[in-house]
Description:
- By secondary structure, this protein is an alpha/beta fold.
- Helices cover about 25% and strands about 30% of the residues.
- The protein has 2 domains: about 5-45 and about 205-265, no CATH class; about 75-200 and about 270-315, Vaccinia Virus protein VP39 (Rossmann fold).
- It has helices at about 40, 65-70, 75-90, 105-115, 125-140, 175-190, 270-280; strands spanning about 5, 95-100, 120-125, 145, 160-165, 190-200, 210-220, 220-235, 240-250, 255-260, 265, 285-290, 305-315.
Amino acid sequence: MPPSVVSALSLECPTHDPTICRTPLGSGVCHDEADRPVEDLAPGLPSADPATDCGMSNSAVYRYPRYYALGYRWNTEAECRFIEACLKAYGSSPATRLLDLGCGSGRHMTRLAKRGYHVTGVDLSPEMVAYALEEARKAPLDVSVSVDDIRHLKVQGTYDAAFCFMDTFRFLLTNEEIIAHLRTVARLLAPGGLYLIDFWVPNQWEKIGNEVHQWEQAEGEAIVRVFYLQHPDTIDPITQTFEDELVFQIVEGGQTQEIRGGPTRTRLIMPQEFRALIDAAGVFELLATHGDFDLTRPLDGTSLSWRMISVLRTR
């Protein structure tokens, strides 16, 4: 089910903790229960460094990867088909080695690995990485997953294509970070390698920093409702940043609970600005921009949606 924009949403936490709230709506009771700890899934996995991680990795929703995996699965197949279509349409040679930047719970990795690709994923959240490793082990699938920071990538190897989906790219807050990131990714790609990037763009000026999206997914007795909120009062017009937030509402076992992610500062990047940043980096050419995960839907005035998907190729 695709996200929809809603005009108003009240998800105020009635308790003392504005960051983590597992509260049955209307009960006024705060529950701070933990899912299976990361140490149980992957002993020795490093923890995120609060001094260096980028914003949303601190989000409480990232500590519940099972709910995240369920809530974000709605468009996974279309996104994987889009990746394969880009490899066929724009790739210079048969592609087998893929790099997933901001892999989250591993939803793209596992599906692409089942299709024969060799996939490497990185994410700043140790909980997400542990969950992705566990899911790959159970399949079993041959994937590589590690904790890493898209601003200072340490991952090694050579890849035919990389992708960075679901707004992860907007954690790069400055022009300098964006240009450095593009140059780093280009060094990881084989000649003619592709980089697919997906992030939110406003479709109307008055919606800049002022949108709310919601969707839900169900599996068995569990329902995950995802709310993506932007906080317009936090807009900084000089840095083009503002705070947004994820909120999960979980219905499971006859109970309803809420997990507030907490505000995270992210960057607003407009289409023409992004083209200029790509040119400034000097390592990619912009082949196409799309308004959806569909090669037949270019980004234009009639198709402009809540997201822009860009296809880059190394020079």
